[in-house]
Amino acid sequence: MTEEHLTAIDLFCGAGGLSQGLSDAGFETLWGIDHEENTKPTYEANHGCEMTVGDIREEDPPDLGLDEGELDLVAGGPPCPTFSLVGRSKINSIDGRDNQSDDRHLLYEDFLRFVDHYQPKAFLMENVEGMLSAENEEGRPVVETIKEQMRGEREVADLDLDLDYNVRVQLLDSADFGVPQHRKRLFFIGNRIGAENPDMEEWKTHRSPSNEDEKDIKYKTDPSKRSEESQHTLDGFVDDREEEEFPTFRKNRRSRKPWNTVADAILDLPPVSPSGDTPPTKAEEYELGPVSEYQYWARDNSEQEDWDEQPLLNHECRGHNMRDLTLYKLLGEGTSYIIGDIPEEHQPYRTDIFPDKLKKQNPREPATTVVAHLYKDGHMFIHPNEARSITVREAARFQSFKDTFEFPVARTHAFKQVGNAVPPLLAQALGTAIRTEIFDRPISQQEPQKAD
To answer: E strands within 203-305?
Structure first.
């Protein structure tokens, strides 16, 4: 651990998307925990710290070799299915259960228990957008209750906690931070050291396109070939920081780039059935070098001329029957079918249970939200120009995992881990903002990072 690195732990860590982003922002993750046994090979293959498999409700906080209050950050995303609309509908369909009685929505209390134990200077808690509309058994808004508990103004169940944190809650779309995917998540940022919590609106790097041309793939350009004229802003001033590499997170940047799209994210990856095999399955070598700015970053190879020597990991999709492949061909670019609209004889699901869609991803827009349901089928994530569902690597690209991030588990487990993760780029933006504003450690104090 160096003086520049701040310390963190990652609760409900999964594959480690949050750990990865915090690492890229200059934090050193000391420990992680998750209840899914299959996450351990993935986490340990990509992170250099201990990871525990276990039920956090039954785990005591481990000794990190730090004094009380010395840990800088407790981070994590308690899995709370009852706060999501999908989770509520599935729970309510189970005999004898409802979303209020399902105790998984109380896992955030164990997050607070760990915060109380370590008394970190700051915390970062992630959850689903549905928490904003959720109410507890007393009919009070869940978010307001949790904020009161974090401030020490309200008791936490039967726990005797000593919390006194200043808290900010924000709903963020990952596409606004360079992730080629629309994914809205709620973040609680708190600190006990008297600092102002960052307003992430001021840290956004990307925006919706202002015209059709801005939806085109964003080719990476050679900085040496940029003209002086192209570097001038509309105000007539040169902001050379806007020429930084992707991704650079800075507060109050003068201009933001158009959202990264499906094309920016994955269209350099080869077909998974280059010899025409049916069903399509897997490819293990790159056929072309990166083209877009995002693809160069995702390849994570400083010697880009050696791209053909880099192994292509996890570029594998599930097999498809001919009915599915034919249905996929029927879809135009960026279009979808509600399952119930398809003739009964072609239905992939029982329509009384699953109101899902067949969705072909639009290459000119960010991907739709990557979900863990991918481990069961890929009908909502059909490749934009191939008759197949997306691969694990393509899902990982949409989530902003670099190609060097390996998922050394069965394909079904890998899809689930990708879908459950916090996008590393979004985590990096949050970590950078927390590092800069709460801890007063400007990003320049880090070792140089690959910027935006």
So the answer is: 206-207, 257-258
Contact 170, 200 (CB under 8 A): yes
Among the listed residues 13, 49, 80, 317, the single catalytic one is: 80
Helix (H, G, I), strand (E, B) or coil at 187: strand
Helix (H) or strand (E) holding 191: strand 184-191
Rounded CA-CA distance 260/171 in Å is 19
Angstrom CA distances, 434 to 168, 175, 186, 398, stand at 12, 19, 16, 24
For residue 382, give every residue at least 6 positions away whose Cβ sits within 8 Å of its Cβ, in sequence order, or none: 328, 331, 358, 359, 360, 361, 388, 389, 390
Burial state string for 125-136 with b = 16 or more CB within 10 A and e = fewer than 16: bbbbbbbeebee
Each residue's pLDDT expressed in tens, for the chain with a length of 452 residues? 445 689 999 999 999 999 999 999 999 999 999 999 999 999 999 999 999 999 999 999 999 999 989 999 999 999 875 553 333 333 333 334 344 444 545 889 999 999 999 999 999 999 999 899 888 777 888 899 999 999 999 998 889 999 999 999 999 999 999 999 999 999 999 999 999 999 999 999 999 999 999 999 999 875 444 444 444 333 333 344 456 789 999 999 999 999 999 999 999 999 987 555 666 678 999 999 999 999 999 998 756 668 888 999 999 998 887 878 777 877 777 776 555 565 655 555 555 444 557 888 999 999 999 998 888 888 889 999 888 899 999 999 999 999 999 999 999 999 999 999 999 999 999 999 999 999 998 765 444 343 33
What class is the 6-204+424-445 domain? alpha beta
Q: Which CATH superfamily is domain 263-420 in?
A: DNA Methylase, subunit A, domain 2 (3.90.120.10)
Beta strands 50-53 and 27-34, pairing class: parallel
Helices (H), 274-363: 293-299, 322-330
d(CA 216, CA 293): 12
Half-sphere exposure in the Cβ direction for 421 (13 Å, CA): 36
Sequence-ordered list of residues with C-beta below 8 angstroms from that of 144, at least 6 positions apart, any chain: none
What is the distance between the alpha carbons of residues 417 and 373, in angstroms, rounded to a whole number? 10
Decide: 398 and 421 in contact? Cβ < 8 Å: no
Is residue 80 annotated as a catalytic residue, yes or no? yes
Structure tokens at 411: 């394909």
Q: Residue 179 CB: number of other CB atoms within 10 A?
A: 30
Write down the pTM of the prediction.
0.87
Domain ranges of the chain: 6-204+424-445, 263-420
Site of tokens 């102002």: 196
